[in-house]
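worker-03 picked up job from queue 'complexes'. Input manifest follows; two sequence lines, order preserved.
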Amino acid sequence: GESVGLHLPTLSVQEGDNSIINCAYSNSASDYFIWYKQESGKGPQFIIDIRSNMDKRQGQRVTVLLNKTVKHLSLQIAATQPGDSAVYFCAEKIQGAQKLVFGQGTRLTINP
Amino acid sequence: NAGVTQTPKFQVLKTGQSMTLQCAQDMNHNSMYWYRQDPGMGLRLIYYSASEGTTDKGEVPNGYNVSRLNKREFSLRLESAAPSQTSVYFCASRGGQGTPPYGYTFGSGTRLTVV
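worker-03 finished. Artifact:
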């Protein structure tokens, strides 16, 4: 069945370091992937997306990498700041489907 | 501000009571969704409406009903609340065009406790 999962439920990094959050997906028919950030008490917010015909996409301080061979997605956050503390979710869309499937989430905490 | 508005933000119900969670979006989006989020878990889809006039079940529809009242509004009803329905509920919408094309815009959530 379709599933999106994460390698680590929690990640703790030093302020200023780079963060890497990983995600595994199981459906080879997924054609679109999104990373969301959810701060405490708020709804998820879009960070960055990538289509399956791409390997890498960069935004402001964030990069998403897609490895279709091993069905792996990662989110890299450069120079992590206290405001990056949140739970990060990956989501996938299966080709032809109307809805997204979300992973469990990774909590990112920043150490001063 | 444009976005997805959910009401109420907090609610406590007794087992067996009923209530309706309201959701409205002002972005002219076609699709709307209801998710629940439990501690330590991701978002699970309850129901969705791909377009006005249609609704479909998601992963966890039991105990819920929905109504797509018009293009703007999508409500979620609990007919007889159970403690297992204690959760945070999120409504989301998605437009057919724009950036991101399949990204959702989420509301701020309704925290529901059933005692």
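worker-03 released lock.
The first strand of chain B starts at residue 4 and ends at 7.
Chain B touches chain A at residues 4, 31, 33, 35, 40-45, 48, 50, 56, 58, 90, 92, 100-109 (CB under 8 Å).
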